[in-house]
Specification:
- It is built from twelve helices and 15 strands.
- By secondary structure, it is an alpha/beta fold.
- The strands form four sheets. It has a seven-stranded mixed sheet, sandwiched between helices. Strands 11-12-15-14 form a four-stranded antiparallel sheet.
- It is globular, with a radius of gyration of 21 Å.
- The relative contact order is 0.17.
- Bound molecules: D-malate.
- D-malate (MLT) binds next to loops.
């Protein structure tokens, strides 16, 4: 019998959102008439922007013609998309990132989960607590054991200070999943300084950058001096342009970002990632990359702004609704997630059950993101407006202090 990777046995039995899905399916089958409102997994509900649909339709037509048909594309993505990203997301914001520092993928979840492969197995990791489970689970699967958890609490504004000890890799997500809070330039600078002093690499997930409304909050870590020497950035079209089902994201690995061998030789991280991708990945579909590239036009930007505005209005309705139901809530201003304190401090899984059973609303228990998420709960703003209003209406009868 083949031996298994026993690191998998150290993980919770189900991935967080699979566990939630299982419980909701069970509840729905036992209560077929319940109208469940799903504000759990951060999945978008609005259709793709028209510019994307048109660009993909044109790409489909190209695939049906022998003259314009495409087979395997470049593993790191087509230049037409990499160049647009470099221009619109970086150059126009005063950041010098070149197209060949950008690697297109089929989404940030894969990139965030796979990036750890290019680092040594004995790397020491720092992660926020609570945290997007992919960062932690992918390191546990690989067998890493040295993990420093940085508590994010209301007391530290969900903004933990760098650890006292030395770590090799630091995962940072801003706007944060799950707390919906952001790190400002000063906070990011302290992480960049820490990374320089400790020879560490920051793995910066800014999948929700498009939701930042405050001009003072950086959309990219490269807006902060020195970041290109220490940080890899992950971005996604999922929440920016409704691509959760269409799949497209990218990683930025600056030319001069290095790791080292055990004998101390400096190796560009970009080369390792390219080697990994060319071996294990055959590129994102041409049709999808054409769709993604279409958001980089004035018309495309206007269309995505509209969709993001829709979700952010939802976030405001949720925040206002929770506050008027007497609950304490965070996030929801520069992010599509609202992080609320459970009423009467009940456990976050008990609150999950109560919301599902009594109100037929699905959210995500904070404890699923780590121990410091206990007694917290996450709602997403990605629902449709009618459901958001109805969910807030239902929650009016939640009586926190009764
Ligand atoms: C979430 O709900 O946290 C997101 O959907 C996760 C993801 O993008 O994979």
């Amino acid at each position: 019998m083949a031996k298994i990777n026993e690191n998998y046995l150290k993980l919770p039995k189900n991935y967080l959102f699979a566990e939630i899905g299982k419980r909701v399916t069970k509840f729905q089958s036992e209560n077929p008439n319940a109208k469940i409102i799903r504000l759990g997994i951060g999945d978008v509900t609005q259709p793709l922007p028209k510019v994307c649909i048109d660009a993909m339709a044109a790409a489909v037509a190209e695939m049906g013609n022998a003259e314009t048909f495409r087979g395997y594309g470049p593993e790191q993505g087509y230049n037409f998309l990499r160049e647009k990203i470099a221009d619109w997301n970086y150059k126009r914001r005063g950041i010098e990132i070149s197209a060949d520092e950008i690697f297109i993928s089929d989404g940030s979840k894969c990139d965030c989960g796979n990036i750890q492969e290019i680092f040594s197995l004995d790397s020491k990791i720092a992660i926020f607590n609570p945290v997007y489970p992919v960062y932690l689970d992918s390191n546990i699967m690989a067998g890493r054991t040295e993990i420093i958890y940085l508590p994010c609490t209301a007391e530290n504004n969900f903004n933990p200070a760098p650890p006292r000890e030395n770590v090799d890799l630091i995962y940072i997500c801003s706007p944060n999943n799950p707390t919906g809070t952001t790190l400002d330039k000063a906070a990011l600078k302290s992480w960049i300084d820490y990374a320089k002093e400790n020879d560490a690499v920051i793995l910066y997930d800014s999948a929700y950058a498009a939701y930042i409304t405050d001009e003072n909050i950086p959309r990219s870590i490269y807006e902060v001096d020195g970041a290109k020497d220490v940080a890899i950035e992950f971005r996604s079209f999922s929440k920016t342009a409704g691509f959760t089902g269409t799949r497209c994201g990218y990683v930025v690995i600056p030319e001069n970002l290095y790791g080292k061998t055990s004998s101390g030789e400096k190796i560009p991280l970009k080369n390792l990632w390219l080697r990994r991708q060319t071996t294990k990945f055959n590129g994102t579909a041409y049709i999808v990359q054409r769709g993604a590239a279409a958001i980089y036009s004035d018309e495309g930007q206007a269309q995505i702004k509209n969709i993001i505005g829709y979700y952010m209005t939802n976030a405001k309705i949720i925040l206002d609704g929770l506050k008027s139901a007497g609950l304490t809530a965070y996030g929801g201003i520069n992010a599509p997630y609202i992080w609320l304190k459970t009423p009467n401090n009940i456990s976050s899984w008990n609150f999950f059950d109560e919301l599902l059973n009594k109100f037929h609303i699905v959210g995500t228990p904070g404890a699923g993101f780590g121990s410091c998420g206990e007694n917290y709960f996450r709602l997403t703003a990605f629902g449709n407006r009618e459901n958001i209003f109805e969910a807030m209406e239902r929650l009016k009868s939640l009586k926190p202090n009764s």
